[in-house]
Every structure is written in structure tokens, then in C-alpha cells.
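Fold it.
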Amino acid sequence: MRKAKSFSHIRTSVVYVLARLAARNAVKEQLRDQGVRVTLVPIRQVHEQADEYLRQHPELYAEARERARQLGMIEIREPMVTPDARRSVG
């Protein structure tokens, strides 16, 4: 029986997807606040505005990373620390 393929590559994209989702939701909220009916706005325009919003708010990536961790989609590990090369030689 073949071994199931790993889905670890999906985990690398989950933060990006969650950040974009947050940006789209923020744009939709802004449009509603302006009295615009979101269903009448072309989705392409919403996506373009969300991309710009995400460029202006990079903190959404950190929030998305924390949300993904809370949902169990990713595991945040401590960075590996290697011994100092000079101490290991001497």
C-alpha cells in the first residue's frame, strides 16, 4: 500500500491565505461603512484593494500566523541553536 502524501506544503500557505482573508474582510467592511453594497463590487476590485490593504498592514501576517497556530494548522518551533564553531573546534 502506498504511503499517503504529506500535506506539509499546505501549512506553508495557510498564513498567507489567512492574512489575505483578513484583508478582504477589512476591505469589505470599509466598503459597507461607505454605504457601498459589497455584492455589487466586482470581486477583482475587492481583491486588488485587499492586496493593497495587506501591503499597508503587514501586521496581518503575524496575526494570521497566531490564528493558524491556535487552530492547530501550524506548529511554531523554537529556532535551532548550533554551538559556536570556535568552541567546537578548540
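The longest helix spans residues 8-33.
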